Amino acid sequence: MDTSEIYRLIDRIETSNVDQIDIKDGSFEISIKKNVQSGVVTPFTNSPVMAPIPAGNSNPESGSSKEAAANPKKETVSGEALKAPLVGTFYRAAAPDEKPFVMIGQEVKKGDVIGIIEAMKMMNDIVAKEDGVITSIDAEDGEMVEFEQPLLHYQPK
After folding, report:
1. Residues 132, 20: Cα–Cα separation, whole Å
2. Dist. CA 82–CA 130, nearest whole Å
3. CA separation for the pair 13, 41 (Å, rounded)
4. Which of 10, 31, 74, 109 has its CB 3.0 to 4.6 Å from that of 48, i.e. a possible disulfide?
Protein backbone atom coordinates (compact mmCIF):
# COMPACT_ATOMS: atom_id res chain seq x y z
CA MET A 1 0.00 0.00 0.00
CA ASP A 2 1.58 3.30 -1.04
CA THR A 3 1.05 6.71 0.59
CA SER A 4 -1.55 7.85 -1.95
CA GLU A 5 -3.67 4.78 -1.17
CA ILE A 6 -3.31 5.51 2.56
CA TYR A 7 -4.42 9.13 2.04
CA ARG A 8 -7.43 7.98 0.02
CA LEU A 9 -8.30 5.54 2.82
CA ILE A 10 -7.99 8.35 5.40
CA ASP A 11 -10.27 10.56 3.29
CA ARG A 12 -12.84 7.77 3.00
CA ILE A 13 -12.81 7.10 6.75
CA GLU A 14 -13.01 10.83 7.48
CA THR A 15 -16.31 11.09 5.59
CA SER A 16 -17.79 7.79 6.82
CA ASN A 17 -19.32 6.47 10.03
CA VAL A 18 -16.34 4.14 10.56
CA ASP A 19 -14.24 5.10 13.58
CA GLN A 20 -11.35 2.66 13.24
CA ILE A 21 -9.75 0.37 10.67
CA ASP A 22 -6.83 -2.05 11.07
CA ILE A 23 -5.11 -3.56 8.03
CA LYS A 24 -2.45 -6.27 8.14
CA ASP A 25 -0.80 -7.62 5.01
CA GLY A 26 2.36 -9.61 5.63
CA SER A 27 4.84 -7.31 7.37
CA PHE A 28 2.75 -4.21 6.57
CA GLU A 29 0.35 -3.01 9.28
CA ILE A 30 -1.70 0.15 9.54
CA SER A 31 -4.25 1.28 12.09
CA ILE A 32 -6.36 4.39 11.48
CA LYS A 33 -8.64 5.79 14.15
CA LYS A 34 -11.12 8.62 13.84
CA ASN A 35 -11.86 10.27 17.15
CA VAL A 36 -14.18 13.15 16.31
CA GLN A 37 -15.41 13.75 19.86
CA SER A 38 -12.02 13.82 21.62
CA GLY A 39 -11.60 17.59 21.31
CA VAL A 40 -7.89 17.07 20.66
CA VAL A 41 -8.06 19.07 17.42
CA THR A 42 -9.54 22.19 19.04
CA PRO A 43 -6.31 23.67 20.50
CA PHE A 44 -4.55 23.43 17.16
CA THR A 45 -7.20 25.15 15.08
CA ASN A 46 -6.38 28.29 17.06
CA SER A 47 -2.60 27.87 16.82
CA PRO A 48 -2.02 31.07 14.78
CA VAL A 49 -3.19 33.04 17.83
CA MET A 50 -0.05 31.83 19.60
CA ALA A 51 2.22 33.31 16.94
CA PRO A 52 5.20 35.25 18.31
CA ILE A 53 4.88 39.01 18.60
CA PRO A 54 7.04 40.66 15.94
CA ALA A 55 10.35 42.20 17.01
CA GLY A 56 10.06 45.80 18.11
CA ASN A 57 6.89 45.17 20.12
CA SER A 58 8.61 43.65 23.13
CA ASN A 59 6.78 45.76 25.74
CA PRO A 60 3.81 43.61 26.76
CA GLU A 61 1.97 46.66 28.12
CA SER A 62 2.12 48.63 24.89
CA GLY A 63 -1.01 48.93 22.77
CA SER A 64 0.81 47.60 19.73
CA SER A 65 1.67 44.35 21.56
CA LYS A 66 -1.97 43.85 22.46
CA GLU A 67 -2.93 44.56 18.88
CA ALA A 68 -0.27 42.12 17.61
CA ALA A 69 -1.56 39.41 19.96
CA ALA A 70 -5.12 40.00 18.75
CA ASN A 71 -4.00 40.08 15.10
CA PRO A 72 -1.19 37.53 14.74
CA LYS A 73 1.17 37.54 11.76
CA LYS A 74 -0.97 34.92 9.97
CA GLU A 75 -3.95 37.27 9.98
CA THR A 76 -4.89 36.80 6.31
CA VAL A 77 -5.79 33.13 6.54
CA SER A 78 -8.38 32.43 3.86
CA GLY A 79 -9.55 29.45 1.91
CA GLU A 80 -9.55 25.76 2.74
CA ALA A 81 -7.16 24.26 5.28
CA LEU A 82 -4.97 21.34 4.29
CA LYS A 83 -4.52 19.50 7.58
CA ALA A 84 -1.90 17.07 8.79
CA PRO A 85 -3.05 13.48 8.21
CA LEU A 86 -0.74 12.22 10.96
CA VAL A 87 1.46 13.33 13.85
CA GLY A 88 5.11 14.02 13.07
CA THR A 89 7.69 16.58 12.02
CA PHE A 90 6.66 18.79 9.09
CA TYR A 91 9.21 19.73 6.46
CA ARG A 92 8.54 22.32 3.74
CA ALA A 93 11.37 21.04 1.50
CA ALA A 94 12.89 17.68 0.57
CA ALA A 95 16.23 18.69 2.15
CA PRO A 96 17.48 21.66 4.20
CA ASP A 97 19.38 23.13 1.25
CA GLU A 98 16.48 22.79 -1.23
CA LYS A 99 13.73 25.28 -1.95
CA PRO A 100 10.30 24.71 -0.32
CA PHE A 101 7.71 22.64 -2.18
CA VAL A 102 5.21 25.55 -2.12
CA MET A 103 5.16 29.27 -1.42
CA ILE A 104 2.29 31.68 -0.72
CA GLY A 105 0.62 32.66 -4.00
CA GLN A 106 1.79 29.54 -5.80
CA GLU A 107 -0.69 27.51 -7.85
CA VAL A 108 -0.84 23.80 -7.05
CA LYS A 109 -2.50 20.90 -8.82
CA LYS A 110 -4.24 17.99 -7.17
CA GLY A 111 -1.56 15.48 -6.15
CA ASP A 112 1.33 18.02 -5.98
CA VAL A 113 3.58 17.48 -2.96
CA ILE A 114 3.21 20.44 -0.59
CA GLY A 115 5.38 19.09 2.23
CA ILE A 116 6.63 16.03 4.09
CA ILE A 117 5.78 14.70 7.53
CA GLU A 118 8.35 12.47 9.15
CA ALA A 119 6.74 9.93 11.47
CA MET A 120 8.49 6.95 12.99
CA LYS A 121 11.52 7.54 10.72
CA MET A 122 9.33 7.33 7.62
CA MET A 123 8.93 10.25 5.23
CA ASN A 124 5.30 10.78 4.17
CA ASP A 125 4.51 13.05 1.23
CA ILE A 126 1.65 15.47 1.93
CA VAL A 127 -0.20 16.20 -1.29
CA ALA A 128 -2.73 18.78 -2.45
CA LYS A 129 -6.27 17.42 -2.40
CA GLU A 130 -7.40 19.67 -5.25
CA ASP A 131 -6.21 22.43 -7.57
CA GLY A 132 -5.79 25.82 -5.91
CA VAL A 133 -3.59 28.74 -4.88
CA ILE A 134 -1.68 28.75 -1.57
CA THR A 135 -2.96 31.60 0.65
CA SER A 136 -0.99 30.90 3.84
CA ILE A 137 1.54 28.49 5.27
CA ASP A 138 0.67 27.73 8.87
CA ALA A 139 3.31 25.17 9.89
CA GLU A 140 6.99 26.07 10.13
CA ASP A 141 9.75 23.92 8.64
CA GLY A 142 10.88 21.35 11.22
CA GLU A 143 7.81 21.94 13.41
CA MET A 144 6.15 19.05 15.23
CA VAL A 145 2.55 18.88 13.99
CA GLU A 146 -0.49 17.17 15.42
CA PHE A 147 -3.17 15.18 13.62
CA GLU A 148 -5.60 17.57 11.86
CA GLN A 149 -3.39 20.63 12.52
CA PRO A 150 -3.62 23.05 9.56
CA LEU A 151 -0.41 22.96 7.52
CA LEU A 152 -1.51 25.56 5.00
CA HIS A 153 -4.55 27.23 3.50
CA TYR A 154 -5.40 27.38 -0.18
CA GLN A 155 -8.09 28.90 -2.36
CA PRO A 156 -9.64 26.13 -4.48
CA LYS A 157 -9.90 26.71 -8.24
Report:
1. 31
2. 10
3. 17
4. 74
- In CATH, what number is assigned to the domain containing residue 120? 2.40.50.100
For residue range 61-76, what is the model confidence (pLDDT) as tens digits?
444 444 444 444 444 5
Contacts of 49 (CB under 8 A, 6+ apart): 69, 72
Residues 17 and 48 in one domain: no
CA-based nearest residue to 68, from 92, 47, 87, 49: 49
| Local confidence band at 35 (pLDDT 50, 70, 90 cut-offs) | low
Structural domain boundaries enclosing 29: 1-34
Mean pLDDT of 19-34: 77
44 and 19 in a common domain: no
Instruction: Note the pLDDT of residue 101.
Output: 96
